[in-house]
Specification:
The protein is an alpha/beta fold. The protein contains 17 helices and 17 strands. 35% of the residues lie in helices and 16% in strands. Strand 14 and strand 15 form a beta hairpin. The protein starts with a helix and ends with a helix. It binds FE(8)-S(7) cluster and iron/sulfur cluster. The site of FE(8)-S(7) cluster has 18 residues, from strand 1, strand 3, strand 4 and strand 5.
């Protein structure tokens, strides 16, 4: 018999697919698809992944771009200490290797963290992964990290465990990682050459001694690569994060990509340096700039031929909760958790996830059907489109409530996810803010169209005046299916001479788009 809770969840999912706590306030990838896109971004199917690997990635929102529309993750901030210094980090804030710089998370004991996991898992049935990503380095705090994983493994064995580290202490803990069933590890590797490394790391603390300069960078790179090899030898999936620092390691990251690929890394996530002076980091204070969106995409494209690239990272907080791109951490503060009546019901969670999987398969089938009409199409037009979504792969967010837009590149090959743009909410307290609207338009002004569930008259006019078509006719429909249908009709308009191809959204992300977002 269906439990009342499951009925409530699935009913809710039908009305507001998959949910988000408050829509106004919160707003992997191993194989290639037929269209040549990474399978993480284009398919809910196994592709040519071995079954054991598919099991590990199919509902991991970071290791599978496609899964991130449907499944949520959470981080528990149990690891405050760090054993190295990165020039893009100010230790007043969370680790920037797996978090947005300038954020401070609420630190937890392992026991409180385990209770929080059960509370979140009970409230968010598609939360499938728990990660430890700071606020310092997870393996510079091994007792707290492994105690937390041990508690979660015993109480909620259906949840995947994930860990992020700078890699210095990694080789000492590979066996412990395997013993607590962690099968996803992220290592931040910014260089494989100590010449480059000494410009990123002023010091490390290793074997009870502080090391500096090239010596420090040499030890760090050797330990990172050794740890990577040890993990992959045990069948543990490894994602490598690299922070792209123009003029320091941008040219070098292709060599990093080669080095980690040859050692069996599963996925490479090249993230932009964010260096605001107010964060007080060495780079921020020295005026070291981050890359533009164009530079980032160019490097990701260059490396993609070699290995699958992650493009949907949100550089989330060390206490993040929810789908990538939404932040529900405020609903699960320690105070609120202590007052919660937590009922961890694994069977109901499982049933809900089966429901999600069914919808996911429907979504993929709908996309494939739509795409079939493009068979034999030789037109090489490409445009960008922005989508307002709250998750579940549907166009289900109001323009004014969107905290980010997902950007897809549309071509005869289909709809390929190429990134996201953060924006200020346009609608605050029910009123549109002109200044915020300008920021939103600037963030998506290289897109030919914006897809929304709903939009007011004023922003519609301003978007159209800026040359961005508003598509609200696909409200609550699946994203990729809708984008492909719209693009087919767009090509017909081009052929009739009603639209100038390339006038907007010609597939080129403009300079500075990321920074504006
Ligand atoms: Fe967390 Fe990282 Fe695991 Fe994901 S995040 S520990 S692999 S569960 Fe994901 Fe967040 Fe990017 Fe990290 S979007 S910052 S890649
Ligand atoms: Fe900061 Fe993370 Fe680097 Fe440590 S590893 S210095 S916490 S960015």
């Amino acid at each position: 018999m269906t439990s009342p809770r499951l009925r409530e969840w699935t009913m809710h999912a039908k009305v507001i697919p998959i949910f988000s706590g408050d829509s106004a306030a919160h707003q992997g990838c191993g194989a290639k698809s037929d269209a040549g896109q990474s399978s993480c971004g284009s398919s809910a199917g196994q592709g040519d992944l071995p079954p054991a690997v598919w099991e590990k990635v199919k509902n991991h929102p970071c290791y599978s771009e496609e899964a991130h529309h449907h499944y949520a993750r959470m981080h528990v901030a149990v690891a405050p200490a760090c054993n190295i210094q990165c020039n893009y980090c100010n230790r007043k804030y969370d680790c920037s290797n797996e978090s947005r710089p300038g954020v401070v998370s609420e630190k937890l004991t392992p026991e409180t963290a385990a209770k929080k996991v059960l509370a979140v898992a009970s409230a968010i049935p598609q939360m499938t992964v728990v990660g430890i990503a700071g606020p310092g380095d997870s393996l510079a705090n091994p007792a707290k990290t492994f105690r937390t994983f041990d508690l979660i493994m015993k109480e909620a064995p259906d949840i995947k465990l994930c860990l992020s580290t700078n890699g210095l202490a990694l080789p000492d803990h590979v066996q412990a990682i395997q013993d607590v069933n962690v099968d996803h590890v992220t290592i931040t590797i910014n260089m494989v050459d100590p010449e480059v490394g000494q410009k990123i790391y002023p010091w490390i603390f290793y074997r009870k001694k502080r090391w500096k300069g090239k010596d420090a960078a040499k030890i760090l790179t050797e330990r990172q690569l050794e740890g990577l090899e040890m993990l992959t030898a045990k069948g543990i999936l490894v994602k490598v994060n690299s922070v792209m620092i123009p003029g320091v390691n941008d040219e070098h990251l292709a060599a990093v990509n080669q080095a980690v690929k040859s050692r069996g890394a599963f996925l490479h996530n090249i993230m932009p340096l964010i260096s605001e002076a107010e964060h007080g980091t060495c780079y921020g204070l020295n005026g070291q700039r981050g890359p533009s969106a164009q530079e980032l995409k160019a490097l990701q494209d260059r490396c993609e031929g070699e290995m699958n690239m992650m493009r949907h990272c949100r550089q989330c907080r060390a206490d993040a909760v929810g789908l990538l791109g939404e932040d529900r951490s405020a609903e699960f503060t320690t105070e609120k958790i202590q007052a919660m009546d937590v009922q961890y019901d694994r069977e109901t969670r499982q049933a809900y996830q089966e429901y999600v999987e069914q919808e996911r398969q429907d979504k993929v089938a709908a996309k494939e059907t739509e795409l079939a009409a493009f068979a034999g199409e030789s037109d090489d037009t490409k445009v960008l489109a922005a989508v307002a979504t709250k998750g579940s792969g549907r166009i289900n967010a109001h323009f004014g409530h969107a905290a980010e837009f997902q950007v897809y590149e549309l071509s005869a090959a289909g709809a390929k996810f190429v990134g996201h743009r953060r924006v200020d909410h346009y609608c605050l307290g029910g009123y549109g803010e002109e200044e915020a609207l300008e920021t939103v338009i600037k963030a998506i002004d290289d897109c030919a169209a914006v897809f929304v569930a709903k939009i007011g008259l004023c922003p519609r006019k301003d978007l159209e005046a800026a040359g961005i078509e508003v598509a609200d006719q696909y409200a609550h429909a699946y994203i990729e299916q809708s984008l492909i249908a719209w693009f087919k009709e767009y090509l017909e308009r081009v052929r009739r001479g009603e639209v100038q191809p390339g006038s907007r959204g010609s597939g080129q992300i403009r300079q500075g788009a990321y920074v504006a977002a």
